[in-house]
Design goal:
Elements (H helix, E strand, L loop, with lengths): L3 E9 L2 E8 L7 E11 L3 H7 L7 E3 L6 E3 L15 E8 L11 E4 L6 E5 L4 E2 L12 H14 L6 E5 L3 H13 L3 E5 L3 H9 L4 E3 L6 H8 L5 E6 L4 H10 E9 L14 H5 L3 E4 L15 H14 L1 H7 E5 L4 H9 L7 E5 L3
Parallel strand pairs: 10-11, 10-13, 11-12, 13-14, 14-15, 16-17
Antiparallel strand pairs: 1-2, 3-6, 3-8, 3-17, 4-5, 6-7, 7-9
Helix pairs in contact: 2-3, 2-8, 5-6
Amino acid sequence: MGRTTQSLYFTGPRELDVREEPLAQPGANEVLIEAVVSGISAGTELNVFRGYAPQWRQHMDPATRLFSATEDPDWKWPARYGYTLVGRVAERGSAVTHLRDGDLVFSYSPHGAHAIVAANAVVPLGDLANPELGAFFANFNTAYNGVLDAAIPLGADVVVSGLGVIGQLVTRLVKRAGARRIIAVDRLAPRREAARAGGATHTLDPATDKVAEIVRELTGGRGADVVIEVSGAAPALNEAIRTAGYNGTVVAMSWYGGTFESLQLSGEFHHNRTRIISSQVGAVNPMLGPMWSVARRGEIVRELMDLYAADLAGFVTHRIPLAQAGQGYRLLDQGAPDVLQVIIDYRK
C-alpha cells in the first residue's frame, strides 16, 4: 500500500468529513508541503460551509464574469476548501531550485495534512518565529486590500463595522493610515475591547447604540468619510450606508451570504450620493497605478505580520486537531462569543 494523507471534505451544507486518501509525488515544478497549521475563515469559508456560496448553484462564465443558474454548478459535494495552509517543504520536484526542504511556506490550499502545490504559487515565510501566525497571511491581505480600496485621507473619520479577525486588522491598519477618529462597531464586548487596544477611538454596540446618529454627533453632523463593512450582514450594510456622510464611501469587504430583500437603496443611499465599493482580494485598487500588484501587496503584508505579531498571536482563541475540525466550524457557525480565530493544528 502506498503512502496516504488526511484531507478535509465538505460533504453537504454544514457537513464535513476527514478522509484518508493516497498521497501522490510532486511533479517537476511542484512541492509537497507537510502541513503545520491552517486557519478556518469566519467569513468566506463559513459561507461555503453553510452552502451559501453561489458556486453551489451557479456557474461563473470566465469570459463575461457573470453568474448564471445551472443544473451543473461550478462546485459539487463533496468538495475540498480552505486557503490558509502553513507548512514545511517536505519534497521538491526536480526543477524546483528556489525552495529548500524544511522551508516554512504559506499556500492557498484546502485543509489537509499535506498539499502538492506549484512551487511558484507558495509564499515563503522566511524566519517567522511562530508558524501559527502564517495562517493570517490571507486575512491580512484581505484587510490591507480593503484599506487600499478605501483610499483613506489623513485625518479621516472612519467606521469599521464587524470586528472579527479582518475587522481587527482593518482597525489597526486604518490607525496606521492616519485616520483621526476610528469608530469600531460590533455586538461582542471582547471584540470591541480588542479594537480599542488596536487603535479605535470609540466603540459602539449596534444592538443598543444608534450607530449612524452617534457617528453624526462625533463628527459635527458630517457622518463618516469612510465606512469599512466587514460583518457580512445585510442590516450592517444598511447601517453602513446610513452612517456614511454626503459623498461618503462604504467599502463592502465581505462575501455576503444569503439574500438581500432587506437592502435599502432609497433614503440615505440615493440622497447622500453614497459610493459603495466592492473590495475583493484578487486584485489591487487600479487607482494606485501600474506599480502596485498582488505580489507587492503580499510583500508588504509579510512585513506587517512581523510588526503585528503580538496582536496576531492574541487573535488565536481555539486550536483543534484535524480529526475534530467539525467542532471548530460549529463554534464559528453558532457565533460563540469567545471565538475569534480557530486554528487546525496538524501537530496534535
